[in-house]
Design brief:
This protein is an alpha/beta fold and 646 residues long. It is 49% helix and 15% strand. GO terms for molecular function: cyclic-guanylate-specific phosphodiesterase activity.
Length: 646
C-alpha cells in the first residue's frame, strides 16, 4: 500500500482513501499497471490515477534514476518527493503503453504534456529524459517483448509531440501579453527541442551514429532520385565474438570497444564520403552511393575490416578485434531500401558461416536456395502430419538366378507447390530441424507394414531394406523403437535390413557400435552402404556386427571396357568380393544400369545387384506383382542369416 500519512484512528492513509486522496495528484487514467503515488502538490500533478496504491519496485527505482538524471542538468524541486511521484506515474504510463499493442497516441502525448507542465522543460533535461527512456526503460522494467523497442520509439515520438503541443498551447495562452521577442524565444526553443529529440530518436545513443531509422531513410532518399544508370552499394559489417567478449568482460568494456570501433569507421566514412550507421549493437553499415560495380563495395568492406586493428587496449586489457562483412550492389531503378538491407544482411550471414572468407557478396541464386530451404524446413512438419512422405521400393536381385530377394525402401516427398523433392535435399533438412527421428520412425513403420503384406504373397517373401541416418544411430532408444515397430507390424526381424552409410559408421560417434550390436541381437540384418567412399578397411569391418556391404556405384566403372579406370578397378573388384566372402559378408553392387555389368558381376561372384537394369523404384501398389512373379525363382530364404559373432 502506498503511504502518505496517518489518520486520527491510527491507520495509514493512501491515495485510494477518499478521505485523504488529493484529486490533483494523478493525471487521466491510462491502461496498464496501477501505481501508487503519495499525495503530491497540485502544481505538478493532475487528477488521481485509479487503482490500488501499490508502487511497483521496478517502477519506483526507475523513477528515482530518472529524477537523478534530470537533476544533473536541471534544478528539480525534490521537497516531499513530489517530483519523484510524478515520474513514478509517468513511468507506469509508459510501461503500459509499450506493452500494449492497442496503445493510444493521445496517452503518450499526455506524458509529454505533463513533462512540460512539471517545469522539466530544459532542453538538456528533456534530451536526457528521452535518452534514458529509450536506453533503460525496457531492461529496467523487465520488458522482453521483441516488439516493445519499436513501440517505444513510436511512443517517444508522441511524447515529443505532446511536449511541443503543450509548449505551443502555452505560447498561445500567453497571447498578446507576450511581446514579439519572447514569442521568438519560445519558437527557437521549440525548434531546438525538436531538433534534439529528432537526433535522439534517429541516432544510436552510444556512438552517436545514425540508427536503423536514419539508415532506411537515407537509402530511400538515394533511391528516389533520378535512376538512369545510377547504382548503390550497401556493406554490413559485424564484429566477431562480440557477445562472448561482452559476456566475459562486461557491458562497460563492450561500450568502450564499440566507441573505439565507431571512431575508426567514422574516419573512413568521412574520408570516403560514405554514409555510416550503427545498428544491432555490434553491426555497422556503410552506404556507398555512385558505385559502378560490386568491386567498389567490396573495396569499402576490405578497407573497413583493415581499419580495425588486431586488438584494442581497454583498461589494461588487450581485446582482439575482427569482423566480417556482407555486401550488395544494385542499380537504383526499382530497388527497395529494406530489401537492399535484407540482402546485405543475408550475405553477412554467409560470411559469418564461412571459416576462410571475410567478405561475402549477395548471390541471388544462393538466396533463392536459402529461401527454398527455409520454406521446405517450415513445411516438413505439416507434410509429415498430412502423410506426404511416402516410400518407393527398388528390387534387390540375386545375381546368380535373378530372384528378387529384397527391396530397398526409398523415401519420397511430393511437395504441393514444388513437386518432387529429392531425398538428398529433405533428409538433411530433417536432420537440421530435429524431425529425423519422428520422420524416420514413420518411414520404418511404412516399410515394415509393406513387407508384412509381401509375406502373404509368397512362401519366401523379400526382405525390406531401410536406410538409417546417423542422427538415428546416435539415439540409444533406436533398438527399442525398431523392436516395437516389428511387434506392431508383425514383421519377422530377419525380413528387415537396415543400411548404414560407411562415413556414419567410421566417424567416432559415441555409442553407435553398441547400438548396432543391440540391433543385431534383435535378428535384423545390418548392411554397410556406399562402401569404398570412406576410410574403412575390410579388416575393420570384420569386427562389426554387420551382414553385408553395398559397393559404391563408382566401382562399376572398373567393369566397363571403355572406361580408363579399367585396370585399377578391374583388379580391385574381384579382391573386394573375395575378401568380403572370407568375412562371411554379402556383397551388393548398386548403380547397375547396363546388361554387361550384370553378367560381369555375376561372374565375379557378387551376390546381389541393384539398379535401373534390374528394376526401377516402384510405388507400393506395384510391388505385389513383382513379388508374385519372382516367388518361383526365389528358392532358399536368402535373408535368414545367423548373426555374426562380435
Amino acid at each position: 500500500m502506498g503511504r502518505s500519512g496517518n489518520d486520527p484512528n491510527g491507520r495509514r492513509a493512501t491515495v485510494a482513501d477518499p478521505a485523504v486522496a488529493d484529486p490533483a495528484v494523478a493525471g487521466p487514467a491510462v491502461p496498464g499497471p496501477a501505481v501508487a503515488v503519495a499525495v503530491a502538490d497540485p502544481a505538478i500533478a493532475g487528477p488521481a490515477v485509479p487503482g490500488p496504491a501499490v508502487v511497483d519496485p521496478a517502477v519506483a527505482a526507475f523513477a528515482r534514476e530518472w529524477l537523478d538524471e534530470i537533476g544533473r542538468v536541471h534544478y528539480v524541486v525534490r521537497r516531499g518527493g513530489r517530483a519523484r511521484m510524478v515520474l513514478e506515474r509517468l513511468t507506469a504510463t509508459l510501461s503500459a503503453l509499450v506493452t500494449d499493442e492497442s496503445w493510444q497516441a493521445p496517452a503518450a502525448r499526455a506524458v509529454g504534456a505533463e513533462l512540460f507542465a512539471t517545469n522539466i522543460s530544459d532542453p538538456d533535461a528533456l534530451s536526457r529524459s528521452i535518452d534514458l527512456l529509450r536506453e533503460r526503460l525496457l531492461p529496467r522494467l523487465g520488458i522482453t517483448d521483441p516488439r516493445a523497442p519499436d513501440r517505444l520509439a513510436r511512443v517517444l515520438a508522441q511524447v515529443n509531440a505532446g511536449f511541443i503541443e503543450a509548449l505551443r498551447e502555452q505560447a498561445q495562452r500567453a497571447g498578446e501579453d507576450i511581446n514579439r521577442a519572447e514569442r521568438e524565444a519560445w519558437r527557437e526553443k521549440q525548434q531546438r527541442l525538436q531538433a534534439q529529440l529528432h537526433h535522439a530518436l534517429s541516432h544510436d545513443p552510444l556512438t552517436g551514429l545514425p540508427n536503423r531509422e536514419s539508415l532506411v531513410q537515407r537509402l530511400r532518399e538515394a533511391l528516389d532520385g533520378p535512376s538512369t544508370g545510377r547504382r548503390l552499394g550497401v556493406c554490413v559489417l559485424k564484429l566477431e565474438r562480440f557477445e562472448q567478449l561482452e559476456h566475459s568482460l562486461g557491458s562497460r568494456k563492450g561500450d568502450q570497444l564499440l566507441l573505439a570501433v565507431a571512431r575508426a569507421l567514422r574516419g573512413l566514412a568521412v574520408a570516403g564520403g560514405y554514409f555510416l550507421a550503427h545498428l544491432n549493437r555490434d553491426e555497422f553499415v556503410f552506404v556507398v552511393e555512385g558505385s559502378t560495380a560490386e568491386d567498389d563495395v567490396a573495396k569499402v568492406a576490405d578497407l573497413a575490416l583493415r581499419t580495425l586493428p588486431d586488438a584494442y587496449r581497454i583498461d589494461h586489457h588487450e581485446i582482439p578485434v575482427s569482423g566480417k562483412a556482407g555486401i550488395v550492389e544494385h542499380g537504383t531503378a526499382g530497388a527497395d531500401a529494406n530489401e537492399l538491407l535484407r540482402r546485405a544482411r543475408m550475405a553477412l550471414g554467409w560470411a559469418m558461416a564461412e571459416r576462410h572468407s571475410q567478405v561475402a557478396p549477395f548471390d541471388p541464386a544462393r538466396s533463392a536456395e536459402d529461401v527454398l530451404r527455409h520454406e521446405l524446413s517450415g513445411d516438413m512438419p505439416r507434410a509429415r502430419r498430412r502423410g506426404e512422405f511416402t516410400l518407393a521400393y527398388q528390387p534387390l536381385v540375386r545375381l546368380r538366378d535373378g530372384a528378387v530377394i529384397g527391396m530397398e525402401a526409398l523415401a519420397r516427398w511430393t511437395h504441393p507447390v514444388h513437386g518432387p523433392v529429392p531425398p538428398n535435399r529433405f533428409i538433411p533438412l530433417a536432420v537440421d530441424t530435429g524431425l529425423i527421428m519422428s520422420l524416420g520412425q514413420d518411414l520404418l513403420e511404412q516399410a515394415c507394414r509393406q513387407a508384412t503384406r509381401w509375406s502373404r504373397l509368397a512362401p519366401h517373401p523379400p526382405m525390406v531394406s531401410v536406410n538409417l541416418a546417423v542422427a538415428q544411430l546416435q539415439q540409444p532408444s533406436l533398438p527399442a523403437l525398431v523392436e516395437a515397430t516389428l511387434d506392431r507390424t508383425g514383421l519377422r526381424p530377419d525380413r528387415l535390413q537396415l543400411e548404414i552409410t560407411e562415413d556414419d559408421l567410421i566417424r567416432p560417434h559415441d555409442g553407435i557400435v553398441e547400438t548396432l550390436c543391440a540391433l543385431a541381437d534383435l535378428g535384423v540384418r545390418l548392411v554397410l552402404d556406399d562402401c569404398g567412399t570412406g576410410h574403412s578397411s575390410l579388416a575393420m569391418l570384420g569386427t562389426l556386427p554387420i551382414h553385408g556391404v553395398k559397393l559404391a556405384a563408382g566401382f562399376l566403372t572398373g567393369i566397363d571396357p571403355e572406361t580408363p579406370a579399367l585396370r585399377s578397378n578391374a583388379r580391385m573388384l574381384p579382391t573386394l568380393i573375395r575378401m568380403a566372402h572370407d568375412l562371411n559378408l554379402d556383397i551388393t553392387a548398386e548403380g547397375i544400369d547396363e546388361p554387361h555389368q550384370v553378367d560381369r558381376l555375376a561372374a565375379l561372384g557378387c551376390d546381389i545387384g541393384q539398379g535401373y537394369q534390374l528394376g526401377r523404384p516402384l510405388p507400393p501398389g506395384e510391388t505385389a506383382r513383382l513379388v508374385a512373379e519372382s516367388r518361383d525363382r526365389r528358392g532358399a530364404d536368402h535373408s535368414t542369416v545367423v548373426p555374426r559373432p562380435r
